[in-house]
Amino acid sequence: MPCCSDDTCSSSAAASGGYRAVLWIVLAINAVMFLVEIIAGLAAGSAALQADALDFFADAANYGISLFVLGLGIRWRASAALVKGASMGLFGLWVIGSVIWHAVHGTVPGWGTMGVVGAVALAANAACLGLLYAWRDGDANMRSVWICSRNDVIANLAVLAAALGVFGTGTGWPDLIVATIMAVLAIQGAATVTRQALSELRDHSSPDPAPLLR
């Protein structure tokens, strides 16, 4: 059996195993759900739905980056994972800012819209998670894709819980609490992806050749 270096084995296996096709599918799902949720989130005045919409947009961009580096060496893939880690962290910070704004203005979102759209988003992300399950333990680039999808499913469940909370209390606080949880998940995921990507870059960095002694 021919052997290959770590730079090419995992990427080639991913490409031949259908990883590229799966990424195109989940990219399309996330792009459509971004449009659905951003419109619904603005109409309902829900910080959680708006945060989830931005997350769908960030994921679609991340999947596009993953498609670009698929088949390239591990340094390219780890570098792409760093970009995705940074985007996840920025998403978390944006959500925190949104929570503060809605808290100051006392927004009470429409719980019905939150529930319906949250259920649709949950089904979409569960499908993505199932498609990506086989590559959950890959390199930093693959792992970042898996972590994004896993966090999305958790976030969708939280949005549904927030809709029930808004219905039961008549206040916007359940929506704000869920949005805060989503921000924490994004920042935690960003830290995990960034650590692994930096580790892979260190492990595959080539030291400068020693000067020849004359």
UniProtKB/TrEMBL annotation:
Q: Which part of the chain is the Cation efflux protein transmembrane domain? A: 23-201
GO terms for cellular component? plasma membrane
Cell compartments where the protein resides: Membrane
Molecular function (GO) terms for this protein are: zinc ion transmembrane transporter activity
What keywords are assigned to this protein?
Answer: Ion transport, Membrane, Transmembrane, Transmembrane helix, Transport, Zinc, Zinc transport
| Membrane topology according to the record | Multi-pass membrane protein
Query: Which InterPro entries does the record associate with it?
Result: Cation_efflux_TM, Cation_efflux_TMD_sf, CDF/SLC30A
Q: Name one Pfam family in it.
A: Cation_efflux
Residue spans crossing the bilayer: 21-44, 56-74, 86-104, 110-133, 153-170, 176-194
Q: Has keyword Zinc?
A: yes
Chief site of localization: membrane
User: What name does this protein carry?
Assistant: Cation efflux family protein
Species this protein is from: Roseivivax sediminis
